[in-house]
Each structure stands twice: as C-alpha cells, then as structure tokens.
C-alpha cells in the first residue's frame, strides 16, 4: 500500500508574479511531525535542488494545533517591489 503524503498543497498556481501577494494553502495529515526548521518555498519551473528556491517563508505551527491531528493552514508570501 502506498504511504500518503504528510503535506498536501491545494490550488497551486502555475504562474506567480514577484510583485503580487501569494497565499499557499495546504493540509497537514496526522502523519506530519512539526520541526522548527519547516519552510515552504516557491521554485522556478524545472528546479533540481531545494537550494534553487526563489523565496521562502517559515511554516509556523498553527495556533491551537495538537500534534497528531490533521489541520488546514495557509502560508503567505508578500509581494516585492
């Protein structure tokens, strides 16, 4: 049986513009274990290494989250000028 992913990204766009705000919606299954070094990045198409991110934001633990439960969350990337 295939193992289900611990993080599922929803409504992922195919194109983002640097000057626009981007909301990254995702679901965490009960299998996910939080780490203080968790982050979410935006990558250029064709990336081949996690070092090739365009920008990133820390994936903070949602307020009121209980370890071992599922949760929906959103990370926000602010637009740049």
UniProtKB/TrEMBL annotation:
Keyword Coiled coil: yes
Superkingdom of source: Eukaryota
InterPro entries: SKICH (IPR041611), UBA_autophagy_assoc_protein (IPR051002)
GO BP of this protein: positive regulation of transcription by RNA polymerase II
Residue ranges annotated for the SKICH domain, each copy included: 7-78
Gene Ontology molecular function terms on file: transcription coactivator activity
Record keywords, A-Z: Coiled coil
Record-linked PANTHER family: CALCIUM-BINDING AND COILED-COIL DOMAIN-CONTAINING PROTEIN 1, SKICH DOMAIN-CONTAINING PROTEIN
Name the record gives this protein: SKICH domain-containing protein
Protein's organism: Xiphophorus couchianus (Monterrey platyfish)
């Amino acid at each position: 049986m295939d193992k289900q992913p611990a993080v599922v990204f929803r409504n992922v766009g195919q194109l983002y513009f640097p000057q626009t705000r981007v909301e990254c919606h995702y679901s965490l299954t009960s299998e996910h274990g939080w780490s203080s070094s968790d982050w979410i990045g935006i990558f250029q198409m064709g990336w081949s290494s996690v070092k090739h991110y365009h920008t990133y934001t820390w994936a903070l633990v949602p307020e009121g989250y209980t370890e071992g439960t599922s949760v929906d969350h959103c990370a926000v990337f602010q637009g740049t000028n």
